[in-house]
Amino acid sequence: MTEAFQKIFSATHFTVRHTSAIEPTTFEAHSHSYYTVTVLLSGRMQITIGENHFAFGRGQTTFTNAHQTHAASGAEFEFVSIGISPTLINELVTELGLTRNAAEIVFHSSLVTDDSITTTVRSIAGEIAQEKIGHQEMLETLVRQLVIHLLRSHLTVRKSAQIELSRAGLVDRRLRRAIEFMHDNFGRELALEEIAAAAYLSEFHFARLFKQLIGATPHAYLANLRIERARKLLAETSIPIIEIAAMVGYQSQSHFTKIFKSVTGLTPRSYRESH
């Protein structure tokens, strides 16, 4: 590896990030609303996914479920990370006849070595780098190919009476009202009492149920929701960063920048330029 760079491509149902770093870099604990597949092309990193800690080596792949907390650190590494929306996965599950209902979908494990994934991910990275005619259509095809392989080899699909598709994505029906409330109001201060009331639960029972079902506290979920919204606005609009900070619930641009960089490894300005 001879240089550091960032390349990011965002589409409706997936996001691709190709990162090369030379200096020590830390990604603080966070989660996403989508499933993540990350292939380490060179170097070595330390990874935490959920409660598991392990070394991440060249040629290996990590899997992160939607809303699963994860963190990483390392120096002199290169990786490609693909975020895939639950909606796209659920659509393919239905098309393939695995189930006709919203399903509970989880990875079998967090760390694997799979040459087929590595080959597909390298092709995706190549499409981003070259930007040839029709590259978006090619990327969509490659991502669908990747998801089908994941469904064949690395994902468990279970019918679930508790999972349903809402305007906030796939959610547990017991938390639907609260999650939709957070999605509708993340741009302002939200007290736990107010969020719990949307689910018709006491603060105590809501917080316990939320952590049990989502794997994160309501506060952590809300913080990650704000960062995900900021990513989208930075990638798809020219709204000034100070305005984006306020739109996602941060009154201070400096505080927003600090939180954003701790999670993504990039300042909001660098993230926007990487697109």
Your description of this structure?
The protein has 275 residues and is of the alpha+beta class. It is built from ten helices and twelve strands. Strands 1, 2, 3, 4, 5, 6, 7 and 9 form an eight-stranded antiparallel β-sheet that branches. It has a two-stranded antiparallel ribbon with strand order 8-10. The two termini are 21 Å apart. The model has no long low-confidence stretch (mean pLDDT 91).
List keywords for this structure.
single chain, 275 residues, alpha+beta, eight-stranded antiparallel sheet, 12 strands
What's the overall geometry? globular
The end-to-end distance, rounded to whole angstroms, is 21 Å
In sequence order, what are the helices and strands, one letter per element? EEEEEEEHEEHHEEEHHHHHHH
**Largest sheet at a glance?**
8 strands, antiparallel
Number of helices: 10
Mean pLDDT: 91
Beta-strand share of residues: 25-35%
Rg calculated over all Cα atoms: 18 Å
